[in-house]
Structure formats: C-alpha cells, structure tokens
Amino acid sequence: MAKVSVYNMEGKEVGNMDLNDAVFGVEINEHLVHMAVVQQLANNRQGTQKAKTRSEVSGGGRKPWRQKGTGHARQGSTRSPQWTGGGTVFAPVPRDYSFKLNKKEKRAALKSVLTSKVQENKFIVVDELKLDEIKTKKFAEVMNNLKADKALVILGDMDTNVIKSAANIATVKTTQTSEMNVFDVLKYDTVVATKAAVEKIEEVYA
Hints:
25% of the residues are buried. The chain folds into two domains: 2-46 and 99-205, Ribosomal protein L4/L1 (Ribosomal Protein L4, Chain: A); 50-93, no CATH class. It is 34% helix and 16% strand. Strands 2-1-3-6-4-5 form a six-stranded mixed sheet, with helices on both faces. Helix 2 (30-44) packs across helix 3. It is of the alpha/beta class.
C-alpha cells in the first residue's frame, strides 16, 4: 500500500494514511485514459454547426448562359460551389458527437490517473477543509500552505463555504467524489483531497 502524509490547513503534517492499492496503485492504462478524455470533450460539443449546400442556398434556378459560343466555361447554376454566394462542398450539418464508454472502462481510467498523481507525489491529503465564512483570501492561504497552486480540490461532502471561497481563484477547481472525472484530474497539476473524500473514493472504486 502507498502511504501518504496527511496535512492540516496550516500545511503541517499531522499523520499518515495508507491508500488502497485497488484504487491508487493500479497499472496505468494510457489508452483508457485517452479514451475517457476524448469522450468527455466529445460529449461537451454542441454539434450545432451548419452551412448550406448548393441545394439549400437561394437562387441559381436558371442556366447563367448558353452552353456554347460565349467564350466562358460552361455553367449550370450560379449557386455551384465555385461561384460567389454558392453552396459549400460537404457542408457541416448538426450532429451528435457523443459516444459511450462502459462503466468498467471509466472506472479503470479514473483509477489510472489517480495512481499517476500518487506516483508523481502530486496527491495531497488534508485532514479537513472547513471555513467559518466565505472568504477567498482564507482559502488562498490554505492552498499556499499546502503548496498547491493549480489544484483540483476533492471534497467528501457539499461545503458551500469552501466551494464559494474557491470560486474566484482561476487556478483552483472544487469537486465532490461523485463528480470527479479524468479530464479534471489530468488538467490540474495537484490533487488536494480531504481525508473523508479519500475514504469515499476507496469505498466506491475499490
């Protein structure tokens, strides 16, 4: 089992914690991680782009000039793609880009990125994250104490004070264990998780 230090909000080490190898010590599967990221980005696409083909643009009902004898190249319509105002060749149409990964693949991908963060010593566990009021300055101090600049903060429970205090810090994102995803874990340099959050992750994914 991997062992990590547990810190308090002042950045002082207050203990140790054993991490479950079934979650934080798996073999990293880069292919599944890649697929999970591609899936999330694809599922976020609106897919509403649209351009008109030659059959959809207005005009062009008659042949612009006779077939022979004008000195021009033959033309059948002023709405052919080579004309100004003509249709677009292979125009994009609205479509759904989303695709599915099965549950086992998603779980394996998430375990892989969590394992990589532990191996890179970029997984920080805090005993608790509690704020008496919504105060961005106070939350920034906690992140500074933990030496976590660009961080994903994983909370065990919904905590409005912590979430709103972090909202104005561009380099920090808060999430709960039920909303974790591979893209966010990879995007942020450091993962900061409360002890309660780690226990929930192990309970769900072990």
